[in-house]
Amino acid sequence: MYEARLADGDLRPDVAQTEAVSILENFAAQLDKHASAQGFLARLVHSGSAPMPSGVYLYGDVGRGKSMLMDMFFATANVAKKRRVHFHQFMLEIHQRLHVLQTENVDDVIPSLARNIAKETQLLCFDEFHVSNIADAMILGRLFAGLFENGVIVVATSNWPPDELYKNGLQRERFYPFIDLIKQKLIVHRLGGTVDHRYEQLRGLQTYFSPLSEENTRRLQGVFLQMTDDAKPETFELPVQGRTLKIVHAAKGVGFFNFDELCTEALGAADYLAIAGCLHTVILDGVPQLKPEQRNQTLRFMTLIDTLYEAKVKLFMAAEVPVAKLAPAGEHSFAFQRTISRLTEMQGEEYRQKQHMG
User: Fold this and answer.
1) 3-state DSSP: the chain helix, strand, coil percent, rounded to 5?
2) Is residue 326 included in any domain, yes or no?
3) pTM for the full model?
């Protein structure tokens, strides 16, 4: 698949990517060799040798093509039950499922959850593996130990090597066993090189479109297709503070939204944080010139932009008027100047090169 895209001119030759492709290809061959009709767990038992690795941990700088290579592995992996998911979304689901098990008075909920996941999924592919809070850090070791014990294969991409996960986090010493587990069970490989392919993809692209029109909507749709390599959009749900936030049009870390979805609906900072955590790029259509009576929409829009900016999410947007004229008259006009400043900065090349902090 990789060589075909090179031949078609979709990709440029990249020695580091070729090396990573070889590692993933060899691992896929091991999966084929060890899987048998007797069951997927048979791959763990190979007479006369140690068990094969339980997956691959691919890390490297932003824009090196880690997600693209993992997607190729996922598409070609000869595994019946497989799932690709952003790690942030996966952990939100884990906390929700643990809560359900606890309310059902299940004994030792983490091993039980690991067994349940193993029944559903034989291959888990995680994009943007990152640990930033103590709640995740405290359960990951036991959860992944249970997944590996139950034969789940894990392929993950990350901007950080295992030893730098949850760096400077609270009670980090309790996280060390998880780091050791990753290094013991997975093939850890750094995708080197210096070319930021994601930035090269963004370079020169128009990010702000005005006025609102069918033509500009089509342009945004074109950006979505370009950023996702023509991937089919999916709908997925994020649990947020006991409720569910539905993202109806997303693929490969890119989400396409209408202004009303994010700023007319009753959403808040927690929702925007969840979006910023699992998407590296947001495409937003239908932004109106805000009016004084649109107080709630204005406040939500300001919070949304602040959240995306702080997380270094890339933003493409179509609006009724140029950026400088978005501000409503009245009580929020002064505070909105910061939003205008941030929207302006987010269109610049320097901002585009910043690492997503989700």
Assistant:
1) 50, 20, 35
2) yes
3) 0.66
